[in-house]
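C-alpha cells help. One example:
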Amino acid sequence: MDLVYLIGAGFAVMAGLGAGIGIGIATGHTAEAVARQPEASSKIMTVFFLGIALAEATAIYGFVIAILVIVKS
C-alpha cells in the first residue's frame, strides 16, 4: 500500500477531530444557555441536538472517505 494513500486516509479521519471539538464547544455553550434561561431549555436542547447531528455527519463522512481510500489502494 502506498504511503500517499495512508496519509490521505489520515487527513480524512481528522474530520472527526474537528467534529469532536465542535461538539465540545456546543455542549459548553448549551449548558451556559440553559443555566441562564432554564425556561427555554427545550428549545435550546432541540437546536443543540440538531447541531450535534450535523457535526457527527461530518465526522462520519470523513471516516467513510478514509475507509474508501484504504480499500481502493
User: Anything to note?
Assistant: The two ends are 6 Å apart (CA to CA). The chain has a mean pLDDT of 89. The chain has one domain: 3-72.
